[in-house]
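Researcher: Before we compare anything, I want clean individual predictions. No alignment, no superposition, just each chain on its own. First chain goes here; please echo the sequence and then give the structure tokens.
Model: Echoing the first chain and its structure:
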Amino acid sequence: MPAPRATVRRGLAAVAALPLLALAATACGYGSQAKDADAEPNVSAKGAKLSSDTVRIGYFPNLTHATALVGIHEGTIQKELGGTEVESTTFNAGPSEIEALNAGSIDIGFIGPSPSINGYSKSQGKGLRIIAGSASGGVKLVVNPDRITTLDDLKGKKIATPQLGNTQDVAFLNWISEKGWKVDAQSGKGDVSVVRSDNKVTPGAYRAGDLDGAWVPEPTASRLVSEGAKVLLDETDLWPDKKFVITNIIVSQKFLDEHPDVVEAVLKGSVATNKWINANPDEAKASANRALEKLSGKPLPEEILDPAWESIEFTDDPLARTLRTQAGHAVESGLLKEPDLQGIYDLGPLNKILKAEGLPEVADAGLGVK
């Protein structure tokens, strides 16, 4: 991977799911099973080992996790680790990744904000820390243009979200509330019918006419557009500076305490990967798609890949203020009891790296470790 220019986009953070909804708190995954990743790094472990022989990294086979897809596939993260070997595992949903982190099956994870907050809250602040951002954006409201032409037309229609209490579900419920419409958060019934539908199932349900639209992450949104849907709203337009978190990097608190040098090396690899992605978007897009092909057996077609990639920003900044905002949306909707998020961020290692590279440090919105 060539040396990139120092151009880092800012990124994202969002919402927790109610402890009673722990199994529903996904970011943008497709299912709930974990499997061993077969996308081996292009660079093998070489040189002196750090304080651990291996580091186990979890992520989703999703474009919103392209920092991991590219960083592992291209070997950028492995280069920073030297003789400490990367072992990667892919997940299809946030809860299973949090379970793996808590069980010690993985050490570091790329994951959405909802399961991050839920995992932190359930462990009473002892299980994990958010140590960086990874990606922002990539969420759209897409609709059947034969049934819906304006935002007001959503009233009385059936709109899918990926899962009860997940990041997109809370965002849509908040948008509905701001329109002055009423929906029961648990059942999804009301002025708009909110249908909780797995992202794997949603395109088929849309084709069958069972859905009028969906508030979903990429690449599901672009897949629906390829089926004839129209983008009615990009969620980035609802946020200040058009930024909100979709993927964080988290670490087991135990692993951070025992192997801070390994964590710092992974962060260096992540920062280098994001720089390269932003400086070389076409090459990075192709790299991410090759990694997806290796993991799933087939690449995304261009008509889905190109618009999906265009809507995602890759960043080191976790945009902690947006996490506060989205958590507030979840509380207001009745899906979350007020969480104590103090200490969920430990951005010290990341800011050390950014400062050394002459890049702006990032903030934790007052939610950092004391």
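Researcher: Okay. Second chain, same rules.
Model: Second chain and its structure:
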Amino acid sequence: MSAHCPASRDIPRRTVESFRENGFAHVPRMLSADEVDSFRTASLAALSAHSKSDDAGATRIISTEHVWRADGPLRELALHPRIGAFAERLAGMPLRVWRGDVLLKEPRRSARTNLHDDETFLPFEGRASLTAWVALVDVTVERGCMTFLAGSHERPGPDRVGLPALSADPDGYMLKYWPGLNWNTRVTVPLRAGDCTFHHGRTGHMAAANSTDEQRVSYVVALIDAEATYRPVSGVDVPGELTPGQKLPDDLYPRVGA
């Protein structure tokens, strides 16, 4: 096992406890400085080669789409053993990767990212889902770091609302359907390059616009319960010809550590 792949016992217990209580956790120095340089270069190259802009969603985030599926550095990052080890320890169960993509907020022309939860968009059914958000540059408050609604993953049902509800009220759907969340503590987490946050799929989170003169570059890895099954969500495409209720195939959705 390499120096960058901790055993479960090496992951701080307080980090696990914080994640399970609050629905998110900050892990400093997930990547080494050399790794940050390599993955940032690969990320910018991927954006240059193929990207899309979320102008319709009003965030103006520029991103790749399932870029991790090609061999190369960004697949290596999605399957990074250190990220996987932390994710499985936090979730308390085996996981698999289903998405890995670059996210870019350009200087002074991006917009804020509304309060939302990832589970609304999740085309799978499982015991848990997590997102690892890896900073490839320093991400200050002014550059658009994330703010989390602590404990929002523990809110009562429904487990998720449909995309039509989100589309009808993208700014306020979470607080409309779960009004108790108005009183949850909001925690803003600036990151150094190489730091990572993990958040539960039901945790509400948001981000400010990038008001600096530098790009905000990050990489997101989405992970799901290894026993999850396919649950179609209108408007959300997934690789492979899956049928509802089907378990996810290992070749398309590899197990963490595989």
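Researcher: What stands out in the second chain?
Model: The CA atoms of residues 28 and 195 lie 4 Å apart. Additionally, The two ends are 14 Å apart (CA to CA).
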